[in-house]
Amino acid sequence: MAWFLLLIAGIHEVGWAVGLKYSEGFTRLWPSVFTAGSMTLSIVFLGLALRSLPLGTAYAVWTGIGTIGTVIYGILYFSEPTETLRLICVALIVAGIVGLKLVSS
After folding, report:
1. What is the 3-class SS of the chain, one letter each residue?
2. Which of 74, 100, 103, 101 lies closest to 87 in space, CA to CA?
3. Residue closest to 14 by CA, chosen among 56, 74, 59
4. What is the mean pLDDT of the segment spanning 58-62?
5. Among 24, 23, 43, which residue's Cα sits nearest to residue 33?
């Protein structure tokens, strides 16, 4: 269950990172509200996951999910670059997350 909570926290991490872009420096009301809500939910779910997961593992996975999700969103919706080296680096983050999951309970 803790890993599922961490996944939800990571998804909200993506939500607030993307929301920052749409809020335009918190000058747009609804994107700003969405961003603040996603930030709050991300931290709440991370805190719940930390009840049973090691801090370093949970934090690394949480930020990794946020990073990967944000990169993918940027590629799909903001036409961000998809150079091979960039995608290899994202794959290394995925490998790190999988590795941490495999060695953690």
Report:
1. CHHHHHHHHHHHHHHHHHHHHHHCCCCCHHHHHHHHHHHHHHHHHHHHHCCCCCHHHHHHHHHHHHHHHHHHHHHHHHCCCCCHHHHHHHHHHHHHHHHHHHHCC
2. 74
3. 74
4. 95
5. 23
CA distance 77 to 68: 14
For residue 95, the one-letter residue type is A
The candidate with the shortest Cα–Cα distance to 22, out of 14, 30, 13, is 30
Identity at 98, one-letter amino acid code = V
The length of the chain in residues reads 105
pLDDT digits (tens, 9 = 90+) for 11-35: 999 999 999 999 999 999 999 999 9
